[in-house]
Design brief:
49 helices, alpha/beta, eight-stranded mixed beta sheet, about 15% strand
């Protein structure tokens, strides 16, 4: 009660103060020259008799300045203020000053004004001029406007968002405040809508301007020569020159600051010095704005945006130039961006502009467009509510509990689309839920009198502990940028402001600018020096102060909301995550092809040219706003981490799930998740649990991939039972190579699908259910063989498809797989690395009994037609072959023998016959080491032998350590065992003992391969002999002098010193070659030394004689080839090739020792052939055909090795020398052969050489 009385007393005191101030005023006078002064009594009567009055009048009628005085003369303004709204701050300042001047009262006394960050209202104030935004903000602290007894809404025809909201709010307020007088002023267009809105309130019309205004139309001209339209600046200059003959200032309307600056520079360069060109726009500093109200001795040209259209009276204006365009802000619900485009103005705006002249004398308005163009334009601009995002209005209405925005009494309700867009923005910010009800975030946002986006940033900053920085940034974003960039001083301004730049974030630039100015204040810099400091850095001092004032107000506000401001500086991520919370719709990712960015909802934008981060080309950015001018530009931009986005947009993101799969490790169904925000992919791919997302599909995948396909290993007994049973049936299919035994996966799925209830989607859930079920029925999930098999498989026996092979007593496991194209398709023999080198694996060509028949069928079908037809029917021939030949014999040799027996025609199975076989017709050999690791696998035994180098020496163990010795220079040991029995992994095998040549010494080693041991032992013996017989070998070097003639004959193929070295290297090897058995005891080695000592001289003599004779024949051949007759020249290349095969730079080293002594005979045979050639051309050709035939057979046998760049077996390599004997037999029989030889004998010999050795 005491508080109520106290408030009442305070109110009475204020009334008394106002009454006293009212009585102290001079008599209120109304200028008779103003049209409104002629209707004062009518206006007074209407105000006294009606709660709402609509006053319409054209520009210049005086309604703006005289209406508050009329209300004051009626005694209004004492019990409550006379509130008078203006659409712009500049107008509020100038109107309040004009009214105060007419009332002869200081500004801030009887007449005050309140705009954002400037409050000139006192207890004595009777008339309060303010922006409509200020009055709208007061609805939250004074819902019934109890501080006012009269409210004048001026320039209501502008239909700004604030005006529309106020008009709706006042309509509702009329019933609660019948004492409140409401006066709406408007231009003459569509005034009836205001009357209807306030229940047919009376309309008073007031005539227009004081002096007549002549309207002239001067459309831009089209130049004939290039059809280009005349530039606006040229037209303006032309009109200004026309007005130069008479006095008066000119007001030119332009769309924006850039155009003002450009045309100002153009006019200054074109007009005489006595012309003063002044800019006027809202971003201009107050000091610059005040210049237009000061008198001047020269002619003034004021270049203004549409801020001069209403309320603002610029003194001395006689002429108006109207290009008919303006920048209009339109919000696109589709792209969610503001489009600040240049558009044609409406008729109402054109009339407002023309009304700016004719205030002091007759005026002239020149419209730079045609009268037809004017008449075709809309009567007035769309209300701002149709051009703006309604998020702020919706939020305010929700916080004031004004109900559904679509039900609010707007003069013209906004479209459902715009309302929906406003709600979508609030949803983006998390301010409303899906039912459009305020969330806790929304309730907090409603307490913040600012753009919801900015408010959302502050709320997030509270969580991020970054309020200190965000207060600075949010207050900066709420005002016009204090940084100025004059076009004529662009370089200087950039240089001055470079200290504020940040390469990653334009927002951080605000922090740097704040710190710069704050540091100057902390140093107690005087206001005059502060102004100079700002001027030096191209900063607006007024806006810097405005920024700090707003910062202080917001800071006080959030402190009242118990927000705690951080003392420790926030880092980059904290700051920008906070900003991002309010700008989720303004993110973008760098486009691949150019410098643009792809934004939300697939819009494309560019970074503003003024952005500091433009050069960085960041992958992800966010922008404070997107403005569509010549392009869609992002202004005030920062680089962001894409990982920040998801946590801030959980209520907005869309989850896309693809490729669900069974995760064996986690025992659940996972899927690949892609997360998008407004169409932008912010999480390209990650694995998520698919069960909660789609339980039905997850359950099906669990059964199919987990239970049916074996991807899940259960702890239950049923699992092993079922798997063993399935593998047993599958093995039958793999063996028979037919998929007609095991039921298909769909049958298995149906089995589990019937058993397992819905909701079981992963391993954990399944195990819980299984344990419960198995308590009642332990075999509830057991499969049976009858259920698994489509038919019986009696033909698939152990004999036909054995599990193992026995090769020389070694058990080789077999594996079967029926999967064409798979590396293991067919039958696989698993062989240890040691067994691979010790066993004869030719038996593997026979595969297994159940598969050999198909292989033989394929081989027989690949035979030449003339042979194949003699074997028909092939199936019978295959059966006959299998009854006659056993697996111990070589398969391909057996087939050749069978063909010869059946057809009487020799035929050798060649590479073509083998390569045409399907892969599963070859045994897949899998070689594993002692750790059971795969060494290699393949189906070509030759290729495997070439790729798997034999493990020459057995790995060390106790037995090998007892045998092996190293660094031996002499045979100082007794008997050397031939082999030793070893054991590895519970398996016995032989190791073969032999000497090993280490060049400077000899070792005793244990070998895996018997062949390798024999070869190594001979080389070791040879090395020990070289140590023991070093003096004898040195003595033999003296005999090399006998090689002088041979060196001369062979100089074109081998260097003399190289020849001598090769002889010394080979003489000991040749002497040892006569020994069939290498020594293995000390006594045998001593005996060998004695024998070699005795034969060395004879061996050396024989070698030297052979070399000398070979060199002589070589020389004869070369001379003979120089004198060939024309007939002989037909086969010259053949003769040359034969000679080069026998004599080349390494013939001493590469010709086998047992063949070397035959070399002169082979060369002599070639000489005889050449000499006889002219007299036996036909016989020579016939003999050469036999040579070619055997070479073709040899090449076929060598092809599997040469095609794979492998070394062929020694038997095949030495076979060439048998062909040399055939040469002697065919072309020089008089020289006789070393043994009987013929084409048939050689064919048989070649056939007897095993295919795989």
């Amino acid at each position: 009660m005491n508080d109520t009385l106290k408030k009442k007393d305070q109110h009475l005191a204020i009334e008394a103060t106002r009454q006293a101030r009212f009585e102290s005023l001079c008599p209120i006078e109304f200028p008779e020259a103003l049209p409104v002064s002629q209707r004062i009594q009518e206006i007074k009567d209407a105000i006294q008799n009606h709660q709402v009055v609509i006053l319409c009048g054209e520009t210049g009628s005086g309604k703006t300045t005289q209406l508050p005085k009329i209300c004051l003369s009626l005694g209004r303004g004492i019990k409550g203020l006379i509130g008078h709204t203006q659409p712009r701050r500049l107008a509020a300042r100038s109107v309040s000053s004009r009214i105060a001047s007419e009332l002869k009262s200081p500004l801030g006394d009887a007449v005050g004004f309140k705009i954002r960050f400037a409050d000139k209202v006192s207890q004595q104030t009777l008339i309060k001029v303010m922006t409509d935004g200020v009055l709208l903000a007061e609805t939250q602290t004074d819902p019934d406007f109890k501080q006012y007894d009269t409210i004048i809404i001026d320039e209501a025809h502008e239909r700004s968002l604030n005006i529309d909201f106020l008009l709706g709010y006042l309509k509702r307020l009329t019933s609660r405040r019948p004492d409140l007088k409401i006066i709406i002023t408007s231009a003459t267009i569509d005034v009836e809508s205001f009357s209807k809105h306030f229940n047919n309130a009376p309309i008073i019309e007031v005539s227009g301007r004081t002096y007549p205004v002549e309207i002239r139309y001067r459309p831009l001209e089209v130049k004939d020569e290039d059809d280009q339209e005349e530039k606006i600046e040229e037209a303006i200059l032309d009109v200004v020159k026309d007005f130069s003959k008479v006095g008066g200032d000119t007001l030119v309307f332009l769309p924006g600051e850039r155009e003002i600056r450009d045309i100002a520079e153009f006019l200054k360069n074109k007009l005489p010095p006595h012309y003063e060109v002044l800019p006027l726009f809202s971003r201009l500093s107050n000091e610059e704005q005040q210049k237009i109200f000061k008198s001047s001795n020269g002619r003034r040209i004021i270049l203004s945006t549409n801020v001069a259209e209403t309320s603002l009276t610029v003194p001395g204006i006689k002429y108006v130039i109207d290009p008919g365009i303006a920048r209009v802000n339109r919000y696109s619900p589709r792209s969610k961006v503001e489009q600040l485009q240049i558009e044609k103005i409406s008729q109402a705006s054109a009339k407002q502009r023309s009304g700016r002249c004719g205030r002091v004398s007759d005026g002239i308005c020149v419209r730079l467009y045609s009268e037809d163009d004017f008449n075709a334009r809309p009567l007035f601009l769309d209300p701002e509510i149709y051009r703006s995002s309604l998020a702020s209005v919706i939020l305010k209405m929700a916080s004031l509990h004004l109900g559904d925005v679509s039900q609010f009494p707007f003069i013209q309700s906004p479209s459902r689309r715009f309302i929906q867009d406003g709600y979508l923005l609030l949803q983006e910010l998390g301010a409303v839920n899906d039912q459009y009800e305020l969330t806790p975030i929304g309730r907090d946002l409603s307490k913040l009198p600012m753009d919801p986006r900015l408010g959302r940033m502050l709320l997030q900053a509270k969580k991020e502990n970054a309020l200190s920085e965000l207060l600075i940034i949010v207050s900066a974003l709420s005002i016009q940028d204090p940084r100025e960039r004059p076009l004529d001083k662009k370089a200087e301004s950039e240089a001055a402001q470079i200290r504020f730049f940040d390469e990653k974030s334009d927002f951080v630039s605000y922090l740097k600018l704040w710190d710069f100015f704050d540091e100057a204040i902390q140093k107690k810099t005087s206001q005059n020096n502060l102004r100079k400091l700002c001027h030096a850095h191209f900063l607006s001092y007024l806006r810097m102060r405005e920024w700090r004032d707003l910062h202080e107000q917001i800071r006080d506000l959030i402190l009242d909301m118990n927000f705690k401001i951080n003392e420790k500086p926030a880092h980059y991520a904290q700051i920008h995550r906070s900003i991002l919370a309010g700008l989720l719709g303004n993110i973008g990712i760098k486009a691949l092809e150019d410098d643009s960015y792809v934004g939300a909802r697939n819009i494309q934008f560019h970074l503003s040219p003024g952005s500091n981060i433009k050069r960085r080309k960041s992958k992800w950015v966010m922008a404070a706003d997107l403005v569509d001018t010549t392009k869609l530009y992002a202004r005030t931009v920062a680089e962001i981490d894409v990982e920040w986005i998801e946590s801030l947009s959980l209520h907005l993101v869309e989850h896309h799930h693809t490729d669900p799969y069974w995760d064996t490790k986690l025992s659940r169904v996972n899927a690949h998740e892609r997360i998008t925000l407004y169409g932008l992919t912010i999480v390209p791919k990650r694995n998520v649990h698919f069960g909660p997302i789609n339980p039905e599909i997850a359950r099906e995948i669990f059964i199919r991939q987990g239970l049916v396909s074996g991807g899940y290993v259960s702890k239950g007994l049923f699992w092993k039972h079922n798997q063993d049973l399935i593998e047993e049936v599958e093995l039958l299919e793999h063996k028979a190579r037919r998929l007609d035994v095991l039921v298909n996966e769909e049958d298995l799925f149906e089995f589990y699908d019937k058993k397992i209830p819905q909701g079981i989607i992963n391993g954990d859930g399944f195990e819980d259910w299984r344990r419960e079920v198995e308590l009642k029925d332990p075999k509830a999930l057991f499969l049976t063989k009858e259920l698994l098999m489509k038919r019986d498989a009696n033909e698939i026996t152990e004999i036909q498809y054995p599990e193992t092979l026995n090769i020389e007593g070694v058990i080789i496991p077999l594996k079967y797989r029926f999967e064409p194209g798979h590396p293991d398709d067919g039958v696989t023999a698993v062989i240890s690395e040691i067994d691979f080198h010790q066993l004869d694996l030719n038996i593997l060509q026979w595969l297994v009994p159940g598969m050999i028949r198909e292989k033989l069928n394929c081989i027989f079908k690949s035979l030449p037609k003339h042979i194949r037809t003699q074997l028909l029917p092939l199936t019978d021939s295959v059966t006959e072959f299998l009854t006659q030949y056993k697996t111990q014999e070589h398969l391909f040799q057996s087939i050749s023998q069978f063909i010869l027996k059946k057809t009487k025609e020799p035929y050798l199975i060649d590479e073509a016959n083998i390569e045409s076989l399907p892969r599963h017709c070859f045994m897949n050999i899998e070689v594993r080491n002692q750790k059971n690791e795969l060494v290699s696998q393949g189906r070509d035994l030759n290729l495997l032998k070439g790729s798997i180098k034999p493990q020459v020496h057995v790995k060390k163990n106790e037995k090998t350590n007892a045998v092996e010795r190293f660094n031996l220079k002499r045979w100082d040991f007794d008997e050397l065992p031939y082999d030793i029995l070893l054991n590895t992994h519970q398996k016995e095998y032989k190791g073969f003992i032999g000497l090993s040549d280490e060049e400077e010494s000899v070792s005793i080693r244990v070998f895996v391969s018997e062949e390798e041991a024999i070869a190594s032992h001979r080389q070791g013996v040879l090395r020990l002999l070289s140590f023991e017989l070093k003096p004898q070998l040195k003595q033999l070097e003296k005999d090399l002098n006998k090689l002088k003639e041979a060196q001369l004959f062979l100089r074109d193929v081998i260097e003399p010193e190289e020849l001598r070295g090769d002889v010394i290297e080979m003489v000991l090897d040749s002497a040892l070659n006569v020994e069939n058995i290498m020594p293995r005891t000390s006594s045998d080695f001593i005996a060998l030394i004695k024998r070699i000592k005795n034969v060395l001289p004879q061996t050396m003599k024989a070698m030297l004689d052979t070399i000398h004779l070979s060199a002589s024949y070589y020389h004869q051949l070369k001379e003979l080839l120089k004198t060939l007759s024309p007939i002989q020249k037909r086969s010259e290349s053949l003769f040359v090739n034969r000679m080069n095969f026998l004599i080349h730079n390494e013939f001493i080293l590469t010709t086998p020792s047992n063949i070397f002594t035959y070399l002169p005979r082979y060369l002599k045979a070639l000489i005889i052939r050449i000499e006889k050639y002219p007299t036996r051309i036909d016989k020579d050709a016939s003999s050469q055909k036999e040579i070619d035939r055997i070479h073709q057979l040899l090449d076929a046998r060598l092809k599997p090795y040469t095609s794979k760049k492998m070394t062929p077996p020694q038997a095949l390599k030495n076979f060439q020398w048998q062909i040399e004997e055939l040469h002697v037999s065919l072309f020089a029989q008089e020289l006789k052969t070393a043994y009987p030889v013929s084409l048939k004998r050689l064919e048989k010999a070649l056939e007897d050489i095993p295919y795989y050795v």
